[in-house]
Amino acid sequence: MPPVSSSPLAAASALEALHPRLWRGSSLGATAEPTLPSGFAPLDAELPGGGWPLRAVTELLGGPSGVLEWRLLAPALRRWWDDPGSSAGATAQRKQAPPNHRRLLLVNPPHMPHLPGLQALGLPASALIWVSADTPVQQLWATEQAIRSRVAVLAWLPEARPEQIRRLQVCALGSEAPMFLMRPDQARHQSSAAPLRLLVQPGEGWELAVQLIKRRGPAHEDWLALPATPDAVAPLLTTARRHAVPPSMPAPAPAPTERPHALARPVLHA
Description:
Distance between the termini: 50 Å
Oligomer: single chain
Number of strands: 12
Radius of gyration: 20 Å
Organism: Roseateles depolymerans
Protein name: Recombinase RecA
CATH superfamily: P-loop containing nucleotide triphosphate hydrolases
CATH architecture: 3-Layer(aba) Sandwich
Order of helices and strands: HEHEEHHEHEHEHEEEEHEE
């Protein structure tokens, strides 16, 4: 029988050799599931798999602006629409799907979609489907059906309960299209089955301030500053105006007084 090493490093290596998908809580989670690059290198460096997870619900927490989420998600959605093979780990069937057959379904957005603005972000109007549902039950049903149809989904469900999010997460396991759930920032104190949760706020100038509330891996307490000036606006801005706060954006909110934990169980400062 070969000798057994008592070294912690050797023991960890032996475990990983036996279970390649074994994940240690002290390391950023690797994933065999497909991901979609976010278009922001600093963010991709902190996301397990290097991008937005597919076959999963991603939860974006913030105010009901209906603006910040578009600036954050537009690069990835544009890439998903234009390039069938853009996601890492995508199946051969998905890589061969023609991009013009893809759809982006919006459930209960806070404002009527502004098609010229979305087209300026590179999202073709022909890809967008707007679903107006009156009640939370109808909104949840529409979101679930959209996920089952394997289209990209952006759903604004401020009243979603933990058990309902778990149901959406189970549905998302069978889809290789991105699924984003928008909820108010107060929801960060609630449990959620979404494997990835982010807090999104306006940053300095045209930047977005993003904090990872939950991910597969160690806690990430710092804020990420992501340059998110729309391509159509950037050539019109002088250097001074590029760093000015957009007139429609509120001032950045203070950082939360609690420290986000990797498993979404907040740990209060002493």
